[in-house]
Amino acid sequence: MSGAGGSWWARLADDPGFLGRVRRQWPWVLVLAFVAAGLLLTALSWWRWGAGAIGAGVVAAGVFRSVMKDPGILAIRRHRWIDLCFYYGLGIAIIVFAVIVPGAV
Questions:
Q1: Which of 4, 7, 36, 58 is surrounded by the fewest CB atoms within 10 Å?
Q2: Would you say the pTM of this structure is higher than 0.85?
């Protein structure tokens, strides 16, 4: 099934077109999906769940940055610890604020 050039998924990364770019940046695409889901939930008046999804997406970006050798566009700085402090700090802060902000009575 994998042929001479590797699997179809690996060959797709060499594609210079849209699918190749998406294949190389899948961690970023997944984080964007979390944020888009959070924005949709917020637009549907479920702001706590929406903020939680956005925070979870940012924390997921931190996880990808910490475990992957080449996380693509998620590598903002050359120094990994700066990215990790930013991603984890911002993601956890968003989740905490979503939990502690009092709701309307």
A1: 4
A2: no
